[in-house]
Design goal:
This protein has helices spanning 18-28, 53-61, 79-90, 103-107, 111-117, 142-148, 168-193, 203-210, 212-221, 257-267, 282-293, 298-306, 318-321, 325-329, 370-376, 381-389, and strands at 9-12, 32-37, 69-73, 94-97, 122-127, 198-202, 239-243, 249-253, 312-314, 333-336, 343-346. By secondary structure, it is α/β, with parallel strands linked by helices. The strands form three sheets. A six-stranded parallel beta sheet has the order 3-2-1-4-5-6, with helices on both faces. Strands 7-8-9 form a three-stranded antiparallel beta sheet, with helices on one face. It has a two-stranded antiparallel sheet with strand order 10-11.
């Protein structure tokens, strides 16, 4: 079956989560992604080859971010290795890199150099704070990018320290997902212009973009959103989480009046009907809700709520995510065959009717496809052996 990105060739120079997630998304929809990885031992920060091949094989099997890709190991500080990269660029559509600004220039694989070789290349630079601006050269991680992008400042409870989420907002949404969207947009633009272009993705920008709706109120009224005080941040007892009798948590989101009325009737708290927006009764309402939710398990509440058209769901722990019937029905937990045996991974999110995505294969080992990729651009066995002997490839 045809896939949406069939024929698109991606060279992925990135290392940490945001870039691999971006290229995973592209690979899931048919892009031919080649990881351009460091030669083991050539970079002190990355360390040498794995001491245990079986451990490396198992790690690759569970590395969902690397699935569907090939791997070539190149020491880009070596001139011969750079020539290999340039040859790969000639037939590529996309280059993705996630280094600190300036690194690709020192390596000689920057946009200006690459676009001279292939003017149709879409070159995506994915970094924490972008290629420009006063923070562009600062180091950081997800927690720092969501701080500057504004998300961390609105997450949590009043008077408490900010609640640190898993690195979803900057690394994966503001970074990897935004980069994949931008790459596809640039590829579409190329159909009209005939040329590629540089794409500058800052994770802090991506987070602030995700804050678009949340920022609207501030822009219009000048009133800043504070943790636990907003419409959607837990201030209202009918949009919050409650601890159940089994110690698990349950979420309710009864914003619309008819959903709120159904909630009150189902919980047996009819005394609060018609008082949804009376802030003075919210403390008493929250106390009653807490007491009622504590009388049943999370699964029992889900069974009850689902019968009464109420916006509600249990807060799934990881062990329950993978057994949830809806997640399974939506094929969001899949089994992937790998050299280490079948493993579970998260499935493909977007569901396309005509060109659906799918997990093609597991992640490669570092340099697993070096010979295969080199042979595809005309390198014979002797030449490959010479490159390996001088440390240009691994």
């Amino acid at each position: 079956m045809a896939m949406a990105l069939d024929g698109i060739k991606v060279l992925d120079l990135s290392r940490l989560a945001p870039g691999p997630y971006c290229s995973m998304l592209l690979a899931d929809f048919g892009a031919d992604v080649t990881l351009v990885e460091a030669v083991p031992g050539a970079n002190a920060k990355l360390g040498g080859p794995a001491a245990d091949p079986e451990a490396a094989k198992r790690a690759a099997a569970y590395n969902a971010l690397g699935r569907g890709k090939r791997s070539i190991a190149l020491n880009l500080k070596n001139e011969a290795a750079r020539e290999v990269f340039y040859e790969l660029v000639r037939g590529a559509d996309v280059v993705l890199e996630g280094f600190r600004p300036g690194v690709v220039n020192r390596l000689g694989v920057d946009y200006e150099t690459v676009s001279e070789i292939n003017p149709r290349i879409v070159y995506c630079s994915l970094s924490g704070f972008g290629q420009t601006g006063p923070y562009s050269n600062l180091v950081g991680h997800d927690i720092n990018y969501i701080s500057i992008g504004g998300a961390l400042g609105v997450i949590g409870r009043p008077g408490a320290a900010p609640a640190i989420p898993v690195n979803l907002l900057a690394d994966f949404a503001g970074g990897g997902l935004m980069a994949a969207f931008a790459i596809c947009t640039a590829l579409l633009a190329r159909e009209h212009t005939g040329r590629g272009q540089a794409v500058d993705i800052a994770m802090s920008d991506g987070v602030l973009s995700l804050m678009t709706a949340a920022m609207t109120g501030f822009f219009s009224t000048g009133t800043p959103l504070r943790p636990g005080e907003g419409f959607l941040t837990g201030a209202r007892p009918w949009y919050d989480t409650y601890k159940c009798g089994d110690g698990r948590w349950f979420s309710i989101g009864s914003i619309e009046p008819h959903f709120y009325d159904a909630l009150c009737r189902t919980l047996g708290t009819e005394e609060f009907l018609g008082k949804q927006h009376e802030e003075s009764v919210w403390p008493a309402m929250r106390e009653r809700f807490e007491a009622v939710f504590a009388t049943k398990t999370a699964d029992e509440w889900m069974a009850i709520m689902s019968e009464h058209d109420i916006c509600a769901a249990p807060v799934l722990e990881q062990e329950n995510i993978v057994t949830d019937p809806h997640n399974l029905a939506r094929e969001m937990v899949v089994t992937v065959d790998t050299p280490a045996g079948p493993v579970q991974q998260v499935g493909v999110g977007p569901k396309l009717s005509e060109t659906p995505g799918s997990v093609q294969r597991g992640a490669p080992l570092n340099g697993e496809h070096t010979d295969e990729v080199l042979a595809s651009i005309g390198y014979d066995a002797d030449r490959i052996a010479a490159l390996r002997a001088e440390g240009a490839v691994g």
